[in-house]
Amino acid sequence: MSDAPRPGEHPDELHRPSTGSRLNRLRAGVLGANDGIVSTAGVVVGVAATSTSVPVIATAGGAALLAGALSMAAGEYVSVSTQRDTEKALLATERRELAEMPDAELDELAGIYEAKGLTPDLARQVAVQLTERDPLAAHADAELHIDPDELTSPWEAALASVVSFTVGGLLPLAAILLAPAGVRIPLTFVAVVLALVLTGWGSARLGEAPTRRATVRTVLGGAVAMGVTYAIGSLLDVNV
């Protein structure tokens, strides 16, 4: 399917046939990366607050990374599969209604465009022309806001999630294992904050959204999570 702009669109706009798939991957990737950074950092920082043993920290961090990546992938697959099943069910209902009562569906489509501000005659003309071209696509867009040719993909979401979670989680794990014991936690905190800044800024840029709000939101959430887990680990007062 071509990514060329449709008539009336600017070349740099997001409204292309691949938009749904792109945003699906972007959402899963950003969520996975952010969760990988924050959850893995929370585990290793919390363990490092109670133990200076590198094998203990590595084991805890590795287990958190593996379990988190698999959990994210499974969760994304199940969630997006449910969404896709719902979309298919809605489209099947629309196909049946178009086959059983085409006149009523045409009236309904014309009514939708009239409600959007078109005159009754123009709304009718638009509905007729769109129905002649592709009735299912016309009703799916106007009624359901679904593109029948661009349904969300659970496999894309799962893959984007597991890859991004793993990449994100490796950063705090590497930082805390490679840093000297005396500055292990501060350096990990700095590395995680920088990674969250990059994640928040990058996701906003890819989605063509304001970068400042996304960056601040991402960094604050990660900093709070690390601070809480470090405090809990310190309160345990156990040195393994």
For the structure shown, list the relevant keywords.
mainly alpha, transmembrane helix, elongated, Ccc1_fam, 0% strand, manganese ion transmembrane transporter activity, 240 residues, disordered N terminus
Protein architecture, described:
There is one protein chain. With 240 residues, the protein is an all-alpha fold. The protein has one domain (19-236). 79% of the residues lie in helices and 0% in strands. It contains 8 helices and no strands. Helix 1 runs parallel beside helix 6, helix 1 (19-48) packs antiparallel against helix 7 (184-206) and helix 2 crosses helix 5 (135-144). The longest helix has 47 residues, at 54-100. It is elongated and about 75 Å long. Mean pLDDT is 81; it is low at 1-18.
In what range is the share of β-strand residues?
Answer: under 5%
Quote the average pLDDT. 81
Radius of gyration, CA atoms, in whole angstroms:
24 Å
What kind of sheet is the major sheet?
Answer: none
Number of helices: 8
Q: What helical percentage do the residues reach? A: over 70%
Number of strands: 0
Ends: how far apart?
57 Å
Q: What class would the helix/strand composition place it in?
A: mainly alpha
Shape category: elongated
Count structural domains: 1
Q: Sketch the topology as an H/E string, one letter per element.
A: HHHHHHHH
Low-pLDDT ranges: 1-18
Transmembrane segments: 157-179, 185-204, 216-236
Region (Disordered): 1-23
Biased composition (Basic and acidic residues): 1-16
Membrane topology: Multi-pass membrane protein
